[in-house]
Amino acid sequence: QIFNQHNAEAPNLEPAFHRMAQMEPNLDHDLSWFLLPSYWAKMIVALISFLCFANSYDGDFVFDDSEAIINNKDLRAETPLGDLWYHDFWGSKLSSNTSHKSYRPLTVLTFRINYLFAGGFYPVGFHVINIILHCTISVLMVDVFSILLGGLQFSNKGRRLNLAPKSSLLAALLFAVHPVHTECVAGIVGRADLLCALFFLLSFLGYCKAFKENKEGHTFSVFWVLVSVVLGAIAMLCKEQGITILGLNAVFDALVINKINLLELIRKLLYKDKSLENAGLLRKGLLFRIALLMCGGAGILYIRWRIMGTGPPAFTEVDNPASFADSLFVRAINYNYYYSLNAWLLLCPWWLCFDWSMGCIPLIKSVSDWRIIALAALWFCLIGLICQALCSEDSHKRRILTLGLGFLIIPFLPASNLFFRVGFVVAERVIYLPSIGYCILFTYGFSLLSKQAKKKKILAVAVLGILLINVVRCALRSSQWRSEEQLFRSALSVCPLNAKVHYNVGKNLADKGNQSAAIKYYREAVRLNPKYVHAMNNLGNILKERNELHEAEELLSLAVQIQPDFAAAWMNLGIVQNSLRRFEEAEQSYWTAIKHRKKYPDCYYNLGRLYADLNRHIDALNAWRNATVLKPEHSLAWNNMIILLDNTGNLAQAEAVGREALELIPNDHSLMFSLANVLGKSQKYKESEALFLKAIKANPNAASYHGNLAVLYHRWGNLDLAKKHYEVSLKLDPMAPGTKENYSLLRRKLEQLQKKGG
Fold first, then answer.
1. Closest Cα to residue 445, out of 402, 379, 392, 400?
2. Backbone dihedral region for residue 92 (phi beyond 0: left; psi -120 to 50: alpha; all else: beta)
């Protein structure tokens, strides 16, 4: 039922209460919405927020999850916990030049706990925690919005009163079902934003608790102010935006607790009015609390600066092209256009994309660009709201609009490019906290419309329709985040000019073995961004595998010309040059790759193959040994060492290397096979047989395993078993080299034995 009664009250309100401010007009008075008990409101918000994102629970690791989770060594038990405090979000050392300086150790710690409890990289547990976090945050929003929209008041028993139960429920529902939150909830790396938001809200609620009158009669509690600062620090250790809660707490204190009129205060400051004390600025405790918040914030930022180091993160032009523009005008106009796009995503979250960089949003370079209209619309709305927030005679309106704008703008500041360059153009995840401000403004606007509307039920039904559409959109978008294929393909219609979108679609296809389709998307990525070295590298790799060596060489040469320190491209170029039998150039390319990436086991492996082709056996063994030192589980390098030593007659050394390799990788059937061959030649038939059988058990369809075991039995004189395994080998591979001849020899020998026996 929808209630419009003017005398509707919040359920279970106690009549006597301690006033933190004079009574103001109730936002719920004319709001055409549901009036529910607090526990019912929270249950409904939790249920609906769960329904929005429940279908993401069994999704895969997608997009950034690979780097932040699967490839992040900080999640593994062998990495000391202390290292988390000196590494960035992606597991790199903060002191490294390649670090993004994203310092979120508490978020990484939760990933590590997920990994340990799951016993490996199983995404379900990670997704379930994200969904639970969003539901918890949405429930907390009921309390937060009740304070922001209804004010902070306590009963004489110390209970906080909800003076805006209907509007706080509406705002919390708007937050819970906003589709722009899908990236944070359905994408596992969005855990950073969720944890940050959780402690952000707890910090705010803790600060509000500071004004609950205690038994000694003190008007505020220093303890709870300090708790708020600590919770703000924890929020920042989950994601950088968390620090902004300290500024918002100060704004809340000034506007709600001390009821300062900002316009009046500005006037008095400009004219040096001696009645500043009457304006509330010097009211008891305000300056002290703000000083505590400022000192706490400064201390937190200083500690983070000391840990992070002074160097800024290194981003490239494709990450944020506007920030690299020479013209201040171009930078300013594009930053403002990005702000308007973020605002549009809040207003109309229909076109969503996992990545908005790489040409998705072309730069505005002149005022004749029609997109200037978006900037004008944004600032027209913002200036109008700011004027109302400052100049309205209605103190209630001033307070709500200022708080709405504060929660919209202040948490967005770290992503605004105003203080430092960020590594993205638009990112849906950074709007998670600013959407609180949007929900406040939407709810207040709805209350104003309800006050003016004659048919309030129609207005309420329209808002219900918006909520329902958002629920459906969340569910659809969550399903797209379940797999990389769906996620990447969903972006093609939103950002067809984004080279990274085409690159990721191509990479996904290549991983599935569809090279022809992958080539098409990689070519399009290179066409859209002729300096896209990663697309060139991957395309060159595929062309190399298809034996289109000359085009592969052209692409890889161009990639290293554009980015001379691109180690992977140098290695791949070396492989192509080796295939073209240009050995000196290949060797030089390999060493250049190693120069730019000191710990590069795959490159040492390929260098060893080059030396083996050139019969430089000692150099080959040294290169492969380097590969195994850097990566002890490098099976191919171990195998090649065993085979080379075997082929050159160094059976004792080959056996020693084989045993060493199997100690490190005990379940590798290819190593068992190689060592079994060596042992067979050394006439250690029993041990060789055991290894062959173990290798066959692990990989029963390998024709060579059966064929070589048959040779062993043939030498050993166990002719029946030799015959059996020759036949299995030929059945698996009729063209197996040497097996047919050996089988023919065995059959002749068996025939001769039968004749002798006859």
1. 400
2. beta
| pTM tops 0.90 | no
State the pLDDT at residue 423. 83
CB neighbours of residue 757 within 10 Å? 6
How far from chain centre, in Å, is Cα 175?
Answer: 21
Count of alpha carbons within 13 Å of 449, Cβ hemisphere only?
Answer: 16
**What are the tens digits of pLDDT across the range 310-328?**
566 777 787 888 888 889 9
Query: For residue 408, how many other CB atoms are within 10 A of its CB?
Result: 24
Sequence-separated (6 or more) residues with CB below 8 Å from residue 339: 378, 416
| Mean pLDDT of the 711-727 span | 87
Check if the beta carbon of residue 632 is closer than 8 Å to that of residue 606: no
User: Is-contact 357 500, C-beta < 8 A?
Assistant: yes
Structure-token match 């000083």, residue found: 291
Strand runs labelled E in 508-650:
none
H-only helix segments in 210-285 = 222-238, 244-252, 262-270
- 93 DSSP 8-state letter: B
Q: How many helices (H) and strands (E) does the chain have?
A: 32, 2
Residue type (1 letter), 292? L
Residue of 411, 410, 409, 394 lying closest to 447 (CA atoms): 394
Taking the C-alpha atoms of residue 499 and residue 745, their distance in angstroms, rounded to an integer, is 60
The fourth-level CATH superfamily of domain 498-596 is Tetratricopeptide repeat domain (1.25.40.10)
Nearest to 211, CA basis, from 287, 285, 290, 296 = 285
146 CA to centre of own chain = 32
Is pLDDT at 11 greater than 50 in this prediction?
A: no
Q: Which residues contact 149 (CB under 8 A, 6 or more apart)?
A: 27, 164, 167, 168, 171, 400, 440, 443, 444
Pair 248, 204: CB distance under 8 Å? yes
Comparing C-alpha atoms, which of 413, 400, 397 is closest to residue 440?
400
Block residue for tokens 């929808």: 2
Q: How far is CA 186 from CA 153, 193, 696, in A?
A: 37, 12, 42
Q: For the chain, give every domain's residue range.
A: 37-308, 321-459, 498-596
Looking at the chain, how many residues does it have? 758
Give yes or no for a contact between 726 and 739, defined as CB atoms under 8 angstroms apart: yes
Query: How far apart are the C-alpha atoms of 35 and 168, rounded to whole Å?
Result: 10
Q: Are 357 and 491 in contact (CB under 8 A)?
A: no
Quickly count: other Cβ atoms within 10 Å of residue 472's Cβ: 13
Q: For residue 590, what are the CA distances in angstroms to 379, 601, 606?
A: 54, 11, 8
Per-residue pLDDT tens over the stretch 672-708: 999 999 999 898 989 999 999 999 999 999 999 998 9
In angstroms, the CA 500 to CA 485 distance is: 14
Contact 447, 27 (CB under 8 A): yes
Question: pLDDT category, 284, cuts 50, 70, 90?
Answer: low
| Gap between the Cα atoms of 665 and 341, Å rounded | 52
Instruction: Give the phi and the psi of residue 314 in degrees, each rounded to 5.
Output: -95, 110
Which of 327, 345, 337, 328 minimizes the C-alpha distance to 364? 337
* Contact in structure between 180 and 435 (CB atoms under 8 Å): yes
Count Cβ atoms below 10 Å from residue 366 Cβ, excluding itself. 9
Please give the Cα distance from 480 to 477 (Å, whole number). 5
Q: Any idea which residue has 């040779």 for tokens? A: 711
Q: Looking at residue 313, what DSSP letter applies?
A: P
Residue type, 456: K
Residue 140 has pLDDT above 60, yes or no: yes
Task: Identify the residue with better confidence: 399 or 312.
Answer: 399
Identify the helix (H) or strand (E) that includes residue 155. Answer: strand 154-155
